[in-house]
Amino acid sequence: MKDRYYLAKAITLVESTRKDHKVEAQQLLSLIMDAQHERAKEIGDSAPTFRIGLSGPPGVGKSTFIERFGMYILSQGHRVAVLAIDPSSSKTGGSILGDKTRMPELSYHDDAYIRPSASHGTLARNTNEAMILCEAAEYDICLIETIGVGQSETIVAEMVDMFVLMVPPAGGDEIQGLKKGIVEISDLIIVNKADGEFANAAREAAAEYTSALKYLHPSTSVWNPQVLRVSAKANSGMDNAWKLMQEYYHVMKRSGELSKKRGEQRRLWMWRQISSELLDRLNSDKEICELVDQLEQKVFNGEMTSGTAADHVVDIFTRKYSDAK
Amino acid sequence: MKDRYYLAKAITLVESTRKDHKVEAQQLLSLIMDAQHERAKEIGDSAPTFRIGLSGPPGVGKSTFIERFGMYILSQGHRVAVLAIDPSSSKTGGSILGDKTRMPELSYHDDAYIRPSASHGTLARNTNEAMILCEAAEYDICLIETIGVGQSETIVAEMVDMFVLMVPPAGGDEIQGLKKGIVEISDLIIVNKADGEFANAAREAAAEYTSALKYLHPSTSVWNPQVLRVSAKANSGMDNAWKLMQEYYHVMKRSGELSKKRGEQRRLWMWRQISSELLDRLNSDKEICELVDQLEQKVFNGEMTSGTAADHVVDIFTRKYSDAK
Q1: pLDDT of residue A203
Q2: Which residues in chain A belong to E strands, given as ranges?
Q3: A130-176 pLDDT, tens per residue?
Q4: Is A203 in the same domain as A298?
Q5: Claim to verify: residue B83 and residue B142 sit in the same structural domain
Q6: Chain B residues within 8 A of A181 when measuring between CB atoms
Q7: Is A38 an 8 Å CB contact of chain B?
Q8: B184, A223 contact by CB (below 8 A)
Q9: Is the dihedral of CA A20, A21, A26, A32 positive or negative?
Q10: Residue B175 above 80 pLDDT?
Q11: Does residue B7 or residue A123 have the better pLDDT?
């Protein structure tokens, strides 16, 4: 199913909250998983695709980078899909990630597929499944874009092979809103806008990130996180960025770390989804919701321990379920 | 209840897994919370105590530090309780955190209370509740000790006012097993063993941590994480450590950040405990456990999506509950 129309329809299906759509989506995914699994055995490669996460604060130039970088990897014979997780779109009304108008050239290319984030913010589960669909549609490179605030970048880091952080040519303390820990989980830090009047600032920023990284602990023993300067606007550095990413991909693959990482990510997501579905069911009960609100306030004020409140909620939830029948 | 005997009994009660003990424990905690809440209103201070987390790799000298530092703050007129979260004790059979024999002077002092970690590893919920009990027993400083591996230091960071990381006088890349992100969540980094032959190495390490911190993002706008050299063995630097900690405490308190932080921590723990209790109930069902094992393997191998597996598990769990009646 190389057709973009069918891919878009399939993604809409997995994003749907309608019960019959959900059943259909799971059937479709199951067929795909079987086929992928067979194919993996056939070609002796459980990860023939490359999943790249790209995060960075608003205004750093992610769209321009994706446009240029995407065109570059297309020129290398790849097919690229761009997905987005955007926790801000519903709340702040900020710019829409993955917006096609921000990547005009890439979005019209036959071998590229861009999926803007849904207006309500795209759920992690949907993105995980959309990625599987894109890979089935023979996009061998998946780029997942997010902004570096809130929880979204941790979520993205936990569903991709490589996590790339894009930063402006400025000191770390000048960057607003970057989440704690994001530097430490990055496999590659790209300093953008490294040209013209910012060339020197970018050099300094890159040097400082390099020394900061020296003191942080890499997530895998086979790869030391790198720092790279590019200018998306001037279209320079795309080749180096891709070279470093490929290096990472091959090192991770040869060492067996990549398939281990993917397996562990899948297991993590399974448990995360079990938790979140249980909490969803809990929160979809109006009466329990009201109780939770009251208890939450008490807990926040220090009038009740977290444990006591949790016991209450779980007791009532499980009692309700037993009564439901 | 200033009596250590009753405090120890109360903590044993909240740690118990027996159902009647649990009920008793919740009643006791509820009485205490009410009293604390009343007192907070009376004195106009919702956080009259100070909760300090201390983490660091094995062998860094945490026990010696706690012994000296504890004696120092006792000399300043405080009462100190030392608790431990130790994820390793059950698995690796490593040294027991909070072991009294490792803090001989402190453990015999009337104004100190040391609770060694239970042999099965101490659960976060128990530690949260033990801390409340210690505060009710008029220990105004709570030190929560953990080793800097696994998830324990994140857990500790999320239950204390200030998170302190202790490191050896060595380069970041030479420290084995320190968890990613731990440097970034630290409010204070203490380089220990900064004397004798290690004096220079400690100075270098401190300088490198200082520049690494410059590039990371502080968790609160009112405090910039600090780096300090001490020598627990030579009993030097305890006054400076305490001075910095008090500075942090007062800045956080005056700005209102401390009570906000505690409220948010309590809320976080409530949700975390709801999740973990739901998962506990799920995992205590033998049949579901077997299913989960099978699905987990399939998910790990890439034969099934995480979402599909999660749906299965949750469906069967909730169906079982409806049937249970």
Answers
A1: 93
A2: 50-56, 80-85, 112-114, 141-147, 162-167, 188-191, 226-229
A3: 999 999 999 999 999 987 556 677 889 999 999 999 999 986 555 55
A4: no
A5: yes
A6: 180-181, 184-185
A7: no
A8: no
A9: positive
A10: no
A11: B7
**Residues of chain A found within 8 Å of residue B293, distances taken between Cβ atoms:** none
Which of B203, B237, B255 lies at the terminal end of a domain, its last residue? B255
Instruction: Give the nearest partner residue to A263 out of B300, B308, B325, using CB atoms.
Output: B300
CA distances B20 to A46, A163, B16, B23, B24, Å, are 51, 49, 9, 5, 6
Residues of B within 8 A of A271 (CB-CB) are: 279, 310
Judgement on whether residues B135 and B223 belong to the same structural domain of the protein: yes
- Given an 8 Å threshold on Cβ–Cβ distance, is A318 in contact with B321? yes
User: Could you report the predicted ipTM of this complex, rounded to two decimals?
Assistant: 0.78
> Which backbone phi and psi does A220 adopt, to 5 degrees?
-135, 150
Instruction: Tell the residue number behind the tokens 């630290």, with chain if given.
Output: B186
For A265, other C-beta atoms within 10 Å of its C-beta total: 20
Mean pLDDT of B1-23: 85
Q: How confident is the model at residue A49 (pLDDT cuts 50, 70, 90)?
A: very high
Q: Which residue of B has its CA nearest to A216?
A: B172
DSSP structure string for A180-230: TTTTTT-SEEEE---SGGGHHHHHHHHHHHHHHHHTS--SSTT---EEEE-
User: Is residue B116 domain-resident?
Assistant: yes
Residue A248 and residue A218 in contact, taking contact as beta carbons nearer than 8 Å: no
Task: Tell me whether residues A175 and B217 touch, CB distance under 8 A.
Answer: yes
* Number of domains into which chain B is organized: 2
Nearest to B54 by CA among B44, B40, B41, B68: B68
> Inter-chain contact A303–B34, Cβ cutoff 8 Å?
yes
Chain A, residues 203-222, CB within 8 A of chain B, namely 208-209, 211-212, 214-219
Q: Are residues A174 and A295 in the same domain?
A: no
Residue B304's domain spans which residues?
285-324
Are the Cβ atoms of B296 and A181 closer than 8 angstroms?
A: no
**Joined tokens for residue A252:** 């991770």
List the 259-278 stretch of A: residues with Cβ below 8 A of B: 262-264, 266-267, 269-275, 277-278
We report the CATH number of the domain holding residue B133 as 3.40.50.300
Question: Are B124 and B54 part of one and the same domain?
Answer: yes
Query: Is A267 part of any domain?
Result: no
Residues B231 and B100 in one domain: yes
Same domain, A295 and A233: no
- Strands in A226-229's sheet, in edge-to-edge order, are A112-114, A80-85, A141-147, A50-56, A162-167, A188-191, A226-229
Three-state DSSP state, A22: helix
Three-state SS at B179: coil
Domain membership of residue A269 (yes or no) is no
* Domain end among A238, A256, A274: A256
Does residue A278 lie within any of the structural domains?
no
How many A×B Cβ pairs under 8 Å? 240
Least confident of A251-265, A288-302, B114-128: B114-128
Nearest Cα residue to B164 out of B99, B76, B69: B69
Lowest mean pLDDT, pick from A79-93, A210-224, A264-278: A79-93
Chain B CB within 8 Å of residue A279 CB: yes
